[in-house]
Specification:
The structure holds 3 protein chains of 3 kinds. By secondary structure, chain A is mainly alpha-helical. Helix content of chain A is about 80%, strand content about 0%. Classes of the chains: A mainly alpha, B mainly alpha, C alpha/beta.
Chain lengths: ~260, ~280, ~350
């Protein structure tokens, strides 16, 4: 009985991954397309990869994007977790205020947020670049971390916390030894989501980047007028391969470690 | 005294978000009551015209369109994503990490490219039609592009991980002993699933719904490309008005309309999920 | 503990990884659409020759450029914007008057493209890339559908073309087609004429398979459409991909767009900016840009240097009678709100 459901589960999961990766595979496939348009297939080529390596702009915008994405997810992980943990202790009214505030950045349309932040940061005299990008990206990333961490915190038995505090543990100790290990998986998955969102944001990034800091998605979208070339597909293929490689490597390492034990 | 001290901890967060979102929000609210000149420059003259435009019957249909798209997107991601999250949470730790990794990975690729990827698949001369025709299953291409359904599939695809991750976080911390107890009492797997598992993971579903529904209301280029621009959604409308439409005050009024719609739906939803579980995501 | 150190290390590396990049002879900050709208090789050649570093801020629309320029006029030297945006920026006092004496190559610019409504005295802008909108038609397929040959906008209304037409996605342009087909001018404000156009517009809906601003030619290449209303640079690409796709210059008239260089009033490096403008107006550079971008060049000096395919292509080497039959979308602001409303209603049908 259990065996059967497991097999059904594996089948469903596999099917899901096939569909999830189909569009990705066509992105990869068309990085080898001789034609620069996705409308036709005119034969195989490696030209786009060759062009990719001689393109300083795409490399630079990719670097800006990665820097911003990593800093954003780190900042968001810290702020989001902090908010979620704190919201466990505050008064009910404060909690409502926090929750309202956390939903706000998600609801405001990006154009509105982007344009207003442009004026706001300008009034503050902030230099447009990595700083403004990270600040604005973490704005829409913190709520994700907050929600994910909250989901896990809700189930923590309040009595554990109370008794830990009664036993003389300081709040900080309690957070470190009980809460953080418990919510770590949530923080991690949320941080990965933040990374993906930051790597994909166009509208806010357009307004938040300075003359020297185009991010990769802005670069890609700005190409639409003259045509998005498969060079971008080639870059994405390489990013994907790189990530696969790292994942594979880490799997291998954990496996080896287990055997070593 | 102690509660006051605890409340103080939350102040920096409120100030931070309050500044970065609150100030733009005030800006948007003020803007929505202002007028603009012919060049699109804002002039400081109070008007309610923008709101009169928003409640125009034609534009109200755009709201309805977007609401429909967002609700259906949330539903699809839930139906498709819940089992994925559930199965993943029940895998061994290594496989679970792998599965989560595989779920997130596609989202590292620009969403524009993935949308093009869907067009490559679904087009009349696309991969799917070619395969089906080569297999002689169909003799002329199935038209799959530029429909409401195509926008829906694309939007659901883009937002899938948010639902999965939210549900995963909820399923993962499920108290398995409750499920065991249910089996011991003779309940079938399905009965246990619907009567124990689902109610216990409602907060996760509510979280996922929130994180999918809101962006689905505002996404714009996915429906432009996959839907062929054959209909109008709020995201497109606001984006056009804020840029080429040269009417930022009107875009601001529409933004507030969208925010109001989102809050309305979400508060209804949270209320229901709270009533069901006693503690929703947002009590 | 170890975790914390790792995180700190990552942050430190990332911060250091951001290039500081100070060039010997200063830098020029320009802003416009990305991709090869201003070809990289041209920029790199300029950098090599002058030692001036060029920072190329890529954006997706004219309005983005306006917002960025108005927020930080002292951070950008140059921008390429479309005609109407020159008008807006000029009237908003964002632009510097260009000193032609600093740019000997300005003499190469074809006077035909100067002195237009957006800059009547040609003091603020220099034409860079010219495009028109036209029809791209697969005559063979049109015939197969049993429709009459397409030579005018009005032919797009034929019943046989059901779900076979692709058009760019912008209210003013689509209303423009309808108005022209009725024999009126762009951006008509007369309520009776607008009402007439509205009805005719609605009748076009069944024939449109897709609204697409960036790659409408793809729909003709892959066969889902047999006729399309698009910009000339897109039609050139479509025609290159499939020679069966032929341009049709509708007899009712066509819109023209002139993407133009403008200089920020508070440009931090005006000298460098002039050097750059002069560089790209050199005949050989302008010819290369035209070849790479597939826009019509306003550079008269470049014409003898253009490759054969370019000179033989009627969409690139625009005939005089074609140019005479084009007009700008003037007075968009008067009609925008109403056209947008009609357009949304049209799409929801």
């Amino acid at each position: 009985m259990k065996e059967k459901t497991n097999r059904l589960g594996t089948f469903y999961l596999s099917l899901f991954f096939v569909i999830l990766y189909l569009p990705v595979l066509s992105v990869i496939l068309y990085s080898f397309n001789a034609s620069s348009s996705t409308a036709q297939w005119t034969g195989w080529t490696l030209d786009w990869y060759r062009q990719l390596f001689s393109d300083r702009v795409i490399a630079q915008s990719f670097r800006v994007s990665i820097v911003v994405a990593v800093l954003t997810s780190l900042l968001s992980a810290v702020l989001g977790t902090f908010t979620a943990v704190v919201s466990q202790w505050v008064t009910a009214r404060m909690k409502t205020a926090i929750q309202g505030m956390m939903i706000l950045p998600l609801i405001v349309p990006e154009v509105a947020l982007g344009v207003s932040l442009l004026f706001f940061f300008n009034a503050l005299g902030l230099p447009f670049g990595t700083l403004t990008l990270v600040l604005s990206h973490s704005l829409f990333c913190v709520p994700y971390v907050y929600i994910m961490v909250r989901l896990r915190l809700q189930e923590i038995d309040k009595s554990i916390i109370e008794s830990a505090l009664d036993l003389g543990a300081s709040t900080l100790q309690m957070v470190r030894t009980i809460i953080l290990p418990l919510v770590a998986p949530s923080i991690l998955t949320a941080a990965l989501l933040c990374l993906a969102m930051s790597l994909d944001d166009v509208i806010i990034s357009t307004y938040m980047s300075g003359p020297r800091s185009t991010t990769l998605p802005v670069h890609i979208f700005s190409m639409m007028r003259v045509g998005v070339t498969p060079k971008v597909n080639a870059l994405c293929t390489l990013i994907l391969m790189g990530t696969f490689f790292i994942i594979g490597l880490s799997q291998l390492v954990t496996k080896n470690r287990r055997f070593a034990k | 005294m102690r509660t006051l001290k605890r409340n103080l901890l939350a102040v920096p967060i409120l100030v931070w978000i309050g500044l970065l979102v609150g100030v733009p929000m005030i800006f948007v609210v003020v803007l929505s009551f202002l007028s603009r000149d012919n060049l699109g420059n804002i002039i400081y003259q109070f008007t309610l015209d923008n709101y009169r435009r928003v409640v125009d019957p034609i534009y109200l249909r755009v709201f309805w369109n977007s609401l429909l798209l967002a609700l259906l997107t949330a539903l699809i991601t839930l139906v498709v994503g819940y089992p994925v999250a559930y199965i993943t949470a029940n895998l061994s730790p290594t496989r679970r990490a792998l599965s989560l990794g595989l779920i997130m990975l596609p989202f590292w690729i620009s969403s524009l490219l993935r949308t093009y990827g869907w067009m490559i698949l679904l087009g009349n001369a696309g991969l799917i039609n070619n395969v089906l025709m080569a297999l002689k299953l169909i003799d002329k291409p199935l038209p799959m592009m530029y429909k409401f359904g195509t926008s829906l599939v694309g939007t659901a695809y883009m937002l899938m991980p948010f639902m999965i991750v939210a549900v995963f976080n909820s399923v993962d911390k499920l108290d398995r002993s409750l499920l065991e107890a249910s089996y011991d009492l003779g309940a079938s797997r399905w009965k246990t699933f619907f009567q124990i598992t689902i109610p216990l993971t409602l907060p996760g579903i509510a979280g996922g719904f929130t994180l999918v529904f809101i962006p689905a209301l505002g996404l714009y280029f996915v429906s432009d490309l996959l839907g062929g621009g054959n209909t109008v959604f709020l995201g497109n409308l606001i984006h056009t008005m804020a840029t080429r439409g040269r009417n930022r005050p009107l875009a601001a009024a529409f933004s507030l309309g969208m925010i109001a719609l989102a809050l309305l739906v979400l508060s209804l939803y949270w209320k229901v999920s709270k009533d069901k579980t006693g503690e929703g995501l947002f009590q | 503990m170890k975790m914390r150190k790792t995180v700190l290390l990552i942050v430190a590396v990332l911060i250091l990884a951001v290039p500081a990049g100070v060039a010997a002879n200063g830098e020029v900050n320009l802003m416009t659409w990305g991709g090869d709208f201003i070809p990289r090789e041209v920029i790199e050649e300029f950098e090599k020759e002058t030692g001036i570093r060029v920072n190329y801020k890529e954006v997706t629309s004219n309005e983005d450029m306006q917002s960025l320029l108005e927020a930080n006029p002292d951070q950008y030297d140059l921008a390429v914007v479309t005609d109407y945006m020159v008008d807006i920026l000029r009237q908003n006092g964002m632009l510097a008057v260009l000193d032609k004496s600093q740019m000997p190559n300005y003499a190469n610019i074809n006077p035909v493209y100067l002195g237009n409504y957006y800059d009547p005295t040609s003091e603020y802008s220099i034409p860079y890339a010219i495009s028109i909108s036209l029809l791209l038609v697969n005559h063979e397929e049109v015939e197969k559908l049993g429709a009459d040959p397409i030579t005018t906008y009005s032919d797009l209304w034929q019943e046989e073309l059901r779900k076979k037409v692709v058009v760019v996605d912008w209210s003013v342009e689509i209303m423009g087609i309808v108005l022209k087909s009725l024999g009126y001018e762009y951006n008509e404000t007369d309520p009776a004429k607008v009402a007439e156009a509205r009805e005719k517009l609605f009748a076009l809906k069944p024939n449109i398979v897709r609204f697409e601003t960036n790659t409408p030619e793809d729909s003709l290449i892959n066969g889902e459409a047999v006729a399309g209303f698009m910009y000339s640079n897109q039609a050139v690409k479509g025609n290159a991909a499939d020679p069966k796709l032929q341009p049709v210059f509708p007899t009712e008239g066509m819109p023209i767009f002139i993407d133009s260089w403008v200089m920020s009033k508070e440009a931090p490096n005006k000298d460098g900016a002039y050097q750059f403008l002069d560089f790209i107006m050199r005949p050989e550079t302008a010819a290369r840009i035209a070849d790479l971008t597939k826009f019509t060049t306003p550079n008269k000096g470049a014409e003898p240097l253009l490759p054969d395919y370019y000179r033989d292509n009627p969409m690139l080497n625009l005939a005089d009678e074609v140019v005479e039959n084009t007009s700008f979308y003037i007075g968009v602001e008067r009609v925008l709100e109403e056209y947008e409303h009609i357009y949304v209603e049209f799409k929801l049908r």
